[in-house]
Design goal:
This protein is mostly helical and about 150 residues long. The protein has helices at about 10-15, 20-70, 75-149. It is rod-shaped, with a radius of gyration of 33 Å. The protein is about 90% helix and about 0% strand.
C-alpha cells in the first residue's frame, strides 16, 4: 500500500520561513481603540450638552406655563397670557434649535478632524507594516534561495 506523505514538517518549515509580526496587529488595535475612545468622548460631550439644552428648555417652558395657569380677573387677560406664552415659546424654540445646531456642528467638525487624523495614522501604519513585511519576505526568499543552492 502507498503511504500518504506527511506534509506537517513541510508546512511548519514553510510557515517559519515567513514569520508574522504581531506587533503590526497590536499597533492597529491600539490605534483603533484610541480612535474609538476619542469618538466616544465627542458623542458623550454632545449628549451631555443636548441634555443640558433640553433640561433648560423644559424648565423655561414650565416657568412660562405657570404664568398662563394663574387666575385672571378679565377674560382678555387669558388671551393675552396665551399670546405672550406662544410668543415666548416660539423665541425659546428658535434659541434652543440654534443651540442644538451648534452642538451638531461641533460634533461634525470634531468627527471630521478625528477621521482625517486617523486616516493619516492608518496610512502611516500600513506603509510601515508593508515595508517591514516586504523586507522580511525578501530576507526569507534570499535565505530559501541560498539554502536551495
Amino acid at each position: 500500500m502507498t503511504k500518504t506523505p506527511d506534509f506537517t514538517k513541510v508546512m511548519q518549515d514553510m510557515m517559519a520561513s515567513f514569520p508574522v509580526d504581531s506587533s503590526a496587529m497590536q499597533n492597529a488595535f491600539k490605534t483603533q481603540a484610541a480612535m474609538a475612545e476619542k469618538l466616544s468622548k465627542v458623542a458623550l460631550e454632545a449628549a451631555e450638552k443636548s441634555t443640558e439644552i433640553t433640561a433648560k428648555w423644559t424648565k423655561d417652558t414650565l416657568a412660562k406655563l405657570s404664568d398662563v395657569s394663574k387666575a385672571k380677573t378679565e377674560p382678555t387677560d387669558y388671551t393675552k397670557s396665551m399670546t405672550d406664552f406662544a410668543s415666548a415659546y416660539a423665541e425659546m424654540t428658535a434659541e434652543n434649535m440654534a443651540a442644538f445646531a451648534e452642538v451638531a456642528k461641533k460634533v461634525q467638525m470634531e468627527t471630521v478632524e478625528l477621521m482625517l487624523a486617523a486616516g493619516k495614522d492608518f496610512s502611516e501604519d500600513a506603509t510601515a507594516a508593508v515595508k517591514k513585511a516586504t523586507n522580511e519576505v525578501t530576507t526569507a526568499a534570499k535565505k530559501a534561495a541560498a539554502a536551495a543552492k
